[in-house]
Amino acid sequence: MRKKQFKAESKKLLDMMIHSIYTHKEIFLRELISNASDAIDKLYFKSLTDNSVALSKSDFKIRIDLDKENRIIKITDNGIGMTADELENNLGTIAKSGSFNFKKENAQDKNIDDISVIGQFGVGFYSSFMVSDKVEVVSKAFGEQSAHKWISKGIDGYTIEECDKDDAGTVITLYIKEDTENEDYSQYLEQYTIQELVKKYSDYIRYPIIMEMSHQVPDTEKEGEYITEISEDTLNSMIPIWRKSKREIKQEDYNEFYKQKFMDYSDPIAVIHSKTEGQATFDALMYIPENPPYDFYSKEYEKGLQLYSNGVLIMDKCADLLPDYFSFIKGLVDSADLSLNISREMLQHDHQLKIIAKAIDKKIKNELKKMLSNDRERYEKFFKTFGLQLKYGVYANYGMEKDSLKDLLLFDSSNGDGLTTLKEYVGRMADSQDTIYYACGESAEKIALLPQTDAVREKGYEVLYFTDEVDEFAIQMLMEYDGKHFANICKNDIDLSTDAEKEAINQKNEDSKELLEKMKNALDGQVTAVKFSNKLGKHPVSLSAEGYVSLEMEKVLNSMPGANQGVKAQLVLEVNVKHPVAEKLVSADDETIVKYTKLLYANARLIAGLDIDNPTEFSDIVCELM
Ligand code: ADP
Known about the structure:
Blueprint: H1 8-18, H2 27-49, E1 62-67, E2 72-77, H3 84-92, H4 99-109, H5 114-121, E3 132-140, E4 147-152, E5 158-163, E6 169-176, H6 191-202, E7 209-218, E8 226-234, H7 251-261, E9 270-276, E10 282-288, E11 305-309, E12 312-318, E13 330-334, H8 340-346, H9 351-374, H10 376-399, H11 402-405, E14 412-413, H12 422-428, E15 435-440, H13 444-448, H14 451-458, E16 463-466, H15 470-478, E17 480-481, E18 484-488, H16 499-511, H17 513-522, E19 529-533, E20 541-546, H18 551-559, E21 570-576, H19 580-587, H20 590-607, H21 615-625
Parallel strand pairs: 1-7, 11-13, 15-16, 15-18, 19-21
Antiparallel strand pairs: 1-2, 2-6, 3-4, 3-6, 4-5, 7-8, 9-10, 10-13, 11-12, 14-16, 17-18, 20-21
Helix pairs in contact: 2-6, 9-10, 10-15, 17-20, 20-21
Bound molecules: adenosine-5'-diphosphate (ADP).
Adenosine-5'-diphosphate binds at residues 31, 35-36, 39, 77, 79-82, 90, 95, 124-126, 170, 341.
């Protein structure tokens, strides 16, 4: 018997496994069980057409044996088995030639390390070396006379020799590593751990996974004492909840499953369970949580749905299945279209996955639309928690999704009747109104107090109150709704006056040119103009912005990390022509004009929610005038 060497590529992977500091070494069990299940699949399908297969469906099983004393885990299947050549080819090299290089290249691109490669894709049979220092594979291929034993202690190669085995199938024996300071390998020799791992990763494998279990049961002969009973237990349920028909499942079952699987204390606010056939065939079970996941706002939060291929978990968080604006959704997708092998390495490029992602996006949107029209209260609760994500969704990717998201948005408004959709706003618009008005501020209450809001409301128009930083950016992206454009009432290009009023105010500004110029100069470049205005209601002053950047946008852009404070709204100081303060200005001497202007400007900034640059000067002038 000669010792054979692993191919260079396999050696690299093996080395990575043996020295891995990957914290989820437990996945080795999932990998071996899924291999066993695949091997059984193959023989089972053969049995459908080949009479020489003496097994019927119920005979197929996967067996796990634990030998704690000798630190051995044995995984047995009665599947298709492997010939000597297959042992050599399948276990001596990586089956998917070049796949490891592919992974590594990708890993470097994205600056992720080996650990996340293992985590994302799993690494099949070799993962056994994360927990074992020796692995034995005894296998007999279906239809062959002889069986073979493959043995390896890792890097320095493997041997293959003939051996005895009665039936077709494979037995994998893992010699579990001794514990180290950092690693508790002994846990894998506990029946409880194995039971949990099967439940966690392989519950839905379609063949029974059985293990001999010892249970403590009360001794019927001696009261208060226990005896150990041994039984063969099936560890997996074999039927996933999402495969069952909706009629069979109670709301309670959905909720329980959610809470256990996604570790939440509260019931979800909505459940989306769908079975899709067509371009892609898949089952999806998704949940909208009531509260944000505990780490939702941290950098560590990873969006994604669990991905199953025919009941086998292949990825815990498949990010490609969820757009960012639905990052709060929890759930899973199970599709037979994704082969376990292909999907592990090629997932990101998988065409089928893209079709599924698109279908899922649509399903979630439809569910939200349904909730909005059938259960407004619940929708508003949802929106208060996650609405911000949807607004970012409108804005993101150059507005690619704006049309599919715009009807899911809610805003406060001067209508006073709680939150409103854009559609509802437009429905209330008067015939004469051709613009959707909005104003930005910290809170609805503060916006309601703005001089401009007063003036627009006086004209009988409703104003949307934008209180989230992203609101105005989202609306700029939207550009219009139902053919109606949006206008910020705090920007200078809004004018709701009649022609006669316009003419009068223009005349006034023309006549006061000299005064207004002095005022502008007093502010030393901080505003682009000072004007008299007739649209401030009862209020003496206000700031408005000209051009693209509004005051609110200036605040947001400058508060972003890395902002160079360079973005400035072009400000216009507006003075209410009908307010007594206007009279005062007209009759003041030059020195007083400067002081008044500085005061008015500071007041206008405060009203707009902006800081004043020189509070000391402001206070000095106020006190002096007192
Ligand atoms: P993958 O399962 O992703 O192909 P593995 O390294 O886990 O990669 O396995 C390599 C190959 O070895 C499998 O494709 C399969 O052909 C064979 N194999 C592994 N385990 C078994 C088994 N229990 N029975 C039969 N063949 C197996």
